[in-house]
């Protein structure tokens, strides 16, 4: 290296990489300081650092928590590519920043925050870019010397160590890697927020189906926003409008950027312990007060389930803005690293970290390219372009990836693909991977042709069937990418009756989700429509059933259903159903006398035939979805969800009743920073017609001591009925707002939650008279109400909740109160 390489037009560049001795792991947030100066910086996630100085200093000092102090004598002409190996201390000490005066940075940050509106990327009325993302899951602290035997772990270790000469020193074993390329569009008018996936690439293993669910760990956000979302929680941005209530700021060194602007370093730390806030550094352009780089860190005190810490960095570059005819800062690279807990810490126990214990690490890199601002494309042209790009043909050739990656793969990442290519021919490897995928997803695949499961519903128990056994199947894309044959079979040891369902789905368009399905089934009504709760047909519910009569219905049903994409936010559905309801509980109704078209006076029936046609529309902004078993599974959104449905009951076959139903509703998960979140669902509806009460609105009572946010937990099933109603479900997650103030509890990471549910309904005199021999209750002037207080996050998965019924305490089988459990994997 010559002097010209280390000397720029505006001074000297000092750069290098810091690693941990013994493991060669990159070290983030190590302090690099030029002795005798105010110049300092922190190393990035990959251990790299860069200092740009105008005056020469000959001594570089590196410090980091738990590592010995390191000093380097600098020589002019040899200040690039410095490699530093940090040696761990026997006893970790408090962090020391050598030679840096902690000059308060509040006054400078006040100016930066005051100018947020001038630098926030969201200020542009329209922009587009191409986004490239790669994600990796590694096992850390692997001892390659113990790779013995023929097991899956040993097989992967031996194969990978032959490909990567640094594997034994790095002690990393990559087990998942994926890439994605997408075009993103944003516009205020017309309102457009759209991402079109252009290409996907993964390892081609069965575990890809399991590990693709890790997308919740792939986050990037706008640091100019007040609150930054991580999983379901919110954290205070260092640029929050009220940042000084959460952060302490200190000025660090200054340096010159490549274009000659002065950059000011700002360090920030949380103001209080267990704050929902980051630690890190900002580099800010002193002329524009715009962020050029941010490096942030969250520790395990941030109360993130299963997560030990998170490192996140974001780099900005200058992009031409045609509206202002000048260069402006836009984010172009995001990197994150999520380190998971291990051992007893996974159970939420406050134990010291085992630094040598095996851990999982997720690494993510996102690079934006082809950024265009204020393009002013006509809405018709833009909408046409977005529609034209939509595709599900995401498999691309290797040449495509070589030509279109805006960020090249490292040697380490290339070796991951080589490792898997070597292992795919090994039968032992393929078998073990299928076992892992089965344990994680609940489904077992026979090649690319047939899938069975889920195992969560293989066995259950109820009073009518005794032990119930059930298994389902789906054909897979190896047979057809558009047509899916599916169904399940069930058998009860007590009633000795076979049940089941068989159906056919046809996916017209996967990108603009459009699907038609037809099915016929005969079974009890166990299966529910909620994607985030288990069917009632599982062993957990069987163990926590209340001591009340069994209240299921045996249903024979033929169903024709169509789901239709209308726009990125709107979907519609329509269905045509013929079914026979046969309740196993006490129920009877008066059928229609065809000669006079009125109900019989003293003739009663139990089996109720029904014919219905329904149509509904749903609005959900920025809702994430995924496709599983040819179904579009909703992963949720934090925007309000609005829906409206209409059902027409008509006379057909043995169905004798004509009626109309309408209902409208709204639900939302609403973040309430800094720590809380509110879920609510408000619905109202009306039924027109005189019909048996089972066809009116019957609020969902809970048969089990398993808490549900969609049911009335202390209400018995079929306890109430109404032909006009209003219902409200709420659950307030406090996120540790109270427990974080108690030293012992905050170490456990428990969180508080409160619930309140209410139902009001009324019934016309005609329906009251017609159903007078039926066994149900009417809601009076006061709505039914229940409330709860509970604790979640026990062992990171359990919740315990005390529900109390506030009125209608004398109804049959009413439960005044009770302890309800729950099992949820929340981050």
UniProtKB/TrEMBL annotation:
Gene3D superfamilies: Carboxypeptidase-like, regulatory domain. SUPFAM superfamilies: Carboxypeptidase regulatory domain-like (SSF49464). Transmembrane segments: none annotated. InterPro entries: CarboxyPept-like_regulatory, DUF5686. It comes from the Bacteria. This is Carboxypeptidase-like regulatory domain-containing protein. It comes from Flavihumibacter stibioxidans.
